[in-house]
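Table 4 source record.
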Amino acid sequence: SAAQARASQWWLDGLGVSRAHQLTRGEGVMVCVVDAFFDTSHPDFVGADVSVGADLTHAALSDFVGDPQKDHGTAMAALIVGQGSGPDRKEGTLGTAPKAKVRWVTVSLEKVPRSLDGIKECADLGADVISVSLGGYGEPEAVAYAQARDAVVVVATGNGGSSQEINDLAGLWGVLSVTGVDASLQRDPRANTGPATFPLSKIDPAPDKIDRGGAAVAGPYSRVASTSAACQDIITPKVGGGYRGACGTSDATAIVAGIVALVRSAHPELNAANVVNRIVRTTKPSGAT
């Protein structure tokens, strides 16, 4: 329900998002979301500045209703720019940057690499923040293209439960890669994380060894950390109306992308690299209170 959706958003108070909204709600910032499909007819989007930026798939709504995997993009957009619903909008999903502009770019989940064209399209739209809650191969040319246009690229590390590896796209240098924590700020063991790695040619001259960034920050993955594959801790809008529950670095990434928008709104003098630096340097250690 809408009431359950708002109750699931522990990060609004737990991570200070509600306090941040007293200073900025993302005004003047464009967030571009790369995903498969978006349905913004949901009541939680009423009043939001959200629309298509580019459609690379030309899919129809009827292709997605009833497929829980295809609710993904709608949920990600809501976590960034949702307006809430119900009496005084105190129910439903409230985005971390509800006054930002969201432009979405649809990409095919079957195409590999699926994020490459989407990231470039977002950069061409003039996005200040690009949110990619999808796995992907390392696509340095697309990330470099976006960074050259002063966009912060935010990418999910993945949900494989690894403590040593993150997905290739998230591992590119300069990307704000997002792993996940629960409401007590403990890392959820289902979230991929990993340290930065460097080639040591004198020790291991293998040509396939490359510099890789590690997990940069953590966002809300779940309410309670677990190893269970079943998780409905974060409740968000779904295609065709209503809500669905899920957990994952996808949700964490969208929430962090909204926080990036808050920083860019409050500090327009900072370029993308300095925004990333500020966010990384002001995070709390996992488990901190």
